[in-house]
Amino acid sequence: MIQTLDRKTAPPFHALEKIRIAHALTQKLDNGVPVSIINAGTQDLVKIEFVFSAGVWEQSHSLQASCTNAMLDEGTKTKTAAEIADSIDYYGAFLEQDVNQDWAYLTLYTLVKHLPSVLPVMEDVLKNPLFPENEFGILLQNKRQTFLVDNQKVAHIARTRFNALIFGKDVSYTYKLKVEDFDLLKRQQLIDFYNTWYKSNNCKIIVSGKTDNQIVKLLNKHFGGNDWKAEAKLPEIEAGKIQSDPKQKHLILREDAVQSAVRIGRILFNKLHPDYHSMKVLNTILGGYFGSRLMTNIREDKGYTYGIGSRLISLRNAGYFFISTEVGVDVCKPALTEIYNELKRLRNEPVSNAELDLVKNYMLGDFVRSIDGPFALAEKFKKIMLYDLSYSYYDEFVETVKNITPDVLQELANKYFAEDQLHELVVGKV
Q1: pTM (2 decimals)?
Q2: Containing H/E element for 350?
Q3: In the predicted model, is pLDDT for residue 294 greater than 60?
Q4: Which of 282, 292, 235 minimizes the C-alpha distance to 408?
Q5: pLDDT above 70: residue 16
């Protein structure tokens, strides 16, 4: 008998009772380096991520953290940059480097069967970088050119200058890069940064994919020995005091601008704060997904922009909230009015149960999607490991999403979205 689908009636919805996440198991190499392992997936593939507390927060010179990380594979005592690339490519492996405000990453993707051949190259890159002068000059030249191009874009200017408004000039999270910094950075400063921060006592390793004990033995062979054991204590970083600009509204005029970039937000808190989970729900309603109020009003109804959103950013030593968009200069003023109207509506009117249920379902579904696969599980683990949190953090998140009420959301909106607490930056014309 052939069954037909009733496309006029939505299938019944079943609320998630419990979301189970495969946990990482952590052990230590012989020299004390922690290795966290997520054994999941069926493909013969593994991701090995080396994480160092060596981000922008630790640097004493502009560009120091990013250039140090970028040059790790640009030549060692035994291999040129080309030889390193060829050695990785030959086995179909891939090496990825990244730096953010707090952390530096060096990540290897490879087939498990090729790990014995690829891991020695990774060891050489981490332990013996030379920072060759010629490659250093090329890197700076490329970065300078990117900087000059980006500095003509209103969105880039808004993003970088907004951090200065909310953090103040003395905090490491403030973007301070100037064109003359490319001439001031010296190769020796990269060597000094590497020697200080790329040590075993500042390293965490996360392994995900199809793993077994043999992988841990290989890691111990290449990274667990006394040749990579740091005894010296890591230096203390003096945290600058956050002093947001006392002036709330700022305009960086660009007479030739076709679009204006808008940022509105404030210093907030990171994911250790008890209100963080609840604020994630409030932010999702405001601008955290395609069906959000900002998108519905300013894109769908008014047609002022192609995209608008809001985010909560959690850093190790701070956190902040912002709304961002780019709009035509002719509609910048009414777009700003509508943004503040949506914030005011959250403060003055409770969210309807229907809208809240929709957002809850979206957030829980998105969370389930975010733990699909070994590499996704590794990302979820990393987000709690770097804050010394346990997996109960995610249980608390799910419970908060399921049980939060309109009254709590309205209370949070009045607490954190008051207009006199927000900084506004427009780059372009109003």
Answers
A1: 0.91
A2: none
A3: yes
A4: 282
A5: no
